[in-house]
Q: What sequence folds into this?
């Protein structure tokens, strides 16, 4: 089945590309990312705009998630949990950039839900891991 790996790659690409822009070296947040989370990004909830709590901590967490989750997704490791993480991130992005729903957030949410429903597919580390107990290890003498 080719759909699950294609869905995994399609969902991983925009998050990974975004994650690459967050860093200015290993675990060194870029100044623009810090500025965005401290000054520009606001949560739009019930008609009000609210700043992110602990914006630098949130920026670090987002940056790490945008790198690690897409890699895990492409590998197909912990696929359904990773898709849930990206779906959650999409929801928070929707609260931050409400006008992006139709062009970006809806397709991302749809892909994440499809991955959660279909699973990782045969071309995934999850599939390899589940095959090992079924086949077992046989000792040859």
A:
């Amino acid at each position: 089945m080719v759909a699950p790996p294609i869905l995994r790659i399609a969902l991983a690409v925009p998050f990974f590309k975004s994650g690459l822009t967050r860093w200015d070296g290993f675990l060194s947040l870029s100044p623009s990312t810090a500025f965005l989370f401290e000054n520009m990004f606001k949560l739009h909830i019930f008609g009000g705009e609210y700043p992110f709590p602990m914006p630098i901590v949130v920026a670090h967490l987002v940056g790490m998630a945008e790198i690690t989750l897409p890699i895990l997704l492409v590998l197909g490791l912990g696929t359904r949990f990773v898709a849930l993480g990206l779906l959650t991130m999409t929801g928070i992005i929707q609260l931050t950039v409400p006008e992006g729903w139709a062009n970006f957030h809806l397709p991302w949410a749809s892909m994440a839900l499809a991955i959660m429903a279909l699973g990782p597919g045969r071309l995934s580390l999850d599939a390899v891991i589940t095959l090992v107990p079924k086949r077992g290890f046989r000792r040859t003498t």
